[in-house]
Amino acid sequence: MYQSINPFSKENIQNLAFESIESLNEKLIRSDSAYKNWRKYSINDRKPYFKNLISVLTKEKELLAREITLEMGKPLLESIAEIDKCIGTTEWYLNNVDAIIQQHLPTVSIEHIKSQIAFEPIGAVLGIMPWNFPYWQVFRYAIPTLLIGNTVLLKHAPNVPGCAQSLEKIFKLAGFPDDLFLSLYPAVEDIEYIIASPAVQAVTVTGSERAGRSVASLAGKHLKKCVLELGGSDPFIVLADAPIKQTVAEAIKGRLQNNGQSCIAAKRFIIHEQCYDAFLKELKEQLNARIIGDPMLKETHLGPMARADLKEQLSKQVQSSVAAGADCTYKHPFDDSNSNFFSPLILENIPANSPARAEELFGPVFSCIRVTDTNEAIAVANETRFGLGASIWSNTITEAEKLSQHIEAGSVFINGITRSDARLPFGGIKQSGFGRELSVFGLQEFVNVKTYWVNEQ
């Protein structure tokens, strides 16, 4: 069952039964039919629909943002920013798709041969998406996918059915042809049926390692293209000359964004011993000033965890880390008992094999690690099985740039928190997945790079 429960009030918003195989099959047929028509449109013919979509998102922004906050608990201002990011990404692809295609499709000169390379659509792309950014995660694959001529099938997380329904609705309101964007509500055991369908040509997953392995296995079994964006344990490396107050402010933003529930959140704070004590002192002072409470209030900085089981899992990871030898040296004074809230806390002296260093902690926990030099900082940064993002903080940019080349991650930010941006490719290495979303590379993931060859003699 898909079940939407307000994580702040614990009110049951809606229950939605799993779809039957018959219903899923009917949608797969409709999607395939829509694709066969949509692929005939030129990109210029498709563009007006995306302009309409921007207008719909702009008009409905507050309503959509409130639904995000109701279903998964992030502060309302962050939900509004999520819709703004969807608008910005749609605008970027709309304004740049022609240049992308022209720049990356050269004509190869061969004597007596006319040749051409084309990006052509492939069919329906199934997106298996998470609850933490219920609109943004969908938009960043759906926009380039639809613009290039494919169709979208969305299997959203079970705790955000309202967002899944609204996503389908806004594409209809924008006037897109019927069935280009369809939300599916399958039971887990029926996902293979969808992937195996001849209508589905590719799968993209944002989620846990377990989900990624399962879907990648099914995609391989049925020979479907697959992109995985999985977990992360991003290092936030603070060098000795970093400006403390500013860096701490960014550390808090990087860790607490989305209530600490983000794959690219800063999770392991690797701090040079020369500034470690000053950093921790400032961190505790700034954390004390954070307002925790009702996520619908615009003054709130931190809302509840999205589900009770997520809080329980995070609590177990913290307890296991402390049992292994870590010290909990700070906890925000907010009373998080009998609720889905998790008060921010700081762990220090963390053993390398404990969850706080070896696993992804999906919530507002600052795992702080003291290092003696940059070589140790790099070693600690790379000790994780993940490789999504990283950041380095220093007043000496050239030194930070040299260090960035040794970080095993899909992206490294210097003096800025890790974030996704429509203009730049996004994705990871190691157990954080493979493939890329956004920018030129996101558009190229789900196309047929087709060669045309004509002998003119």
Automatic annotation (TrEMBL):
Q: Start and end of every Aldehyde dehydrogenase domain?
A: 2-451
Q: Which SUPFAM superfamilies match?
A: ALDH-like (SSF53720)
Q: Which gene encodes it?
A: yneI
Protein name as it appears in the record: Aldehyde dehydrogenase
For the keyword NADP, the answer is yes
Keyword NADP tagged: yes
- An example of a Pfam family matching this protein is Aldedh
Q: Name one GO molecular function term.
A: aldehyde dehydrogenase [NAD(P)+] activity
Record InterPro entries: Ald_DH/histidinol_DH (IPR016161), Ald_DH_C (IPR016163), Ald_DH_CS_CYS (IPR016160), Ald_DH_N (IPR016162), Aldehyde_DH_dom (IPR015590), ALDH_GabD1-like (IPR044148), GABD/Sad-like (IPR047110)
List UniProt keywords, sorted A-Z.
Answer: NADP, Oxidoreductase
UniProt record similarity statement = Belongs to the aldehyde dehydrogenase family.
The organism encoding this protein is Cytophaga hutchinsonii (strain ATCC 33406 / DSM 1761 / CIP 103989 / NBRC 15051 / NCIMB 9469 / D465)
